[in-house]
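Section 3.1: Structural characterization of target chains.
Under the original work plan, the team committed to producing a structural model for every single-chain target entering the pipeline before any wet-lab resources were allocated. The record below documents one such target. The sequence was received from the expression subgroup and is listed exactly as submitted; it comprises 306 residues.
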Amino acid sequence: MPRLLVRSGGTVTGGCFMAAFCFSRLAFRSLLTLVLTGAGFFAALPASAAPARIIILRHGEKQDAYRLCPVGNERAQALAAQYLGKGAKDSLFPAGTAPAAILAVTLHTMELAAPAAATWALPVVMYTALPEAPTSPRKKRAKAAAATIAPPAPPPSAPAAASTEQKPKTGGRDPGKRARKADFTQLVTSRTQQAVHDVLTDPRFTGQTVVMVWEHDHIADAALEAANPGQEVTLRQLLHLGALPDVPASWPSATYDYFWIVDLDPDGKPVRFTMQRQVFDGAFATLPSNEWGAPNGLTAQTRCAL
């Protein structure tokens, strides 16, 4: 009976030695069948892992850099009940389907996404970008108190020396704060790039719907894009939405109440773009629902950042 013998060095011979592997004709046929079956399996895999749809929205109204205000928290609950949660009244997901993933990037976006994700028993997938922690109120009070303590008066016999020290003029701006903001922007940019790469290549998302709750200036911001030539820094750029008509160049700072719905072909190319305003009824009917770019009507009484 013919035998195939392969030595560790790759030499094929007609004898069977202790250092060689001996295969019967039946074993060889089984191996060949396995290889051909495997080739057929991999050939059947899609060339791209792109989802069929990406739903993009901004976080809710915020109180500060670390949390939503009461209006933003109410919006999170309303979105779960009406658009994004399991059994939602006006669900954005095709009947009988669920989101493959719900992604977020900052504390604001996670806070908005959490109620809807919980209804599906899904985790919020975080591409974590956290702002630097602020100075604690205790430290702020101590610093303010130290600044109000007058230095001891000089002895009567010693004339007061006139100070010649020139204090730097900052125009009331904090250079450290500007640096922290720039670092945070760069961090969100990096996380945004990573998130889009994963969304477009993860086979678990193939043909599914993915929700991305994001920061508005990293959804679309013409100024941010212009400040980073040669890079793709927003979802608008990374998903190539500029190839479609009627995609805004920037997301307005006062607009919290819109979805961007992007349909993709199997290769991940955007083929349709829809903007949908969030309109709520029932217990959530009083939530701001302004037109794109229009004032949102927030006041200081809402405890939201204006």
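The chain is about 30% helix and 15% strand.
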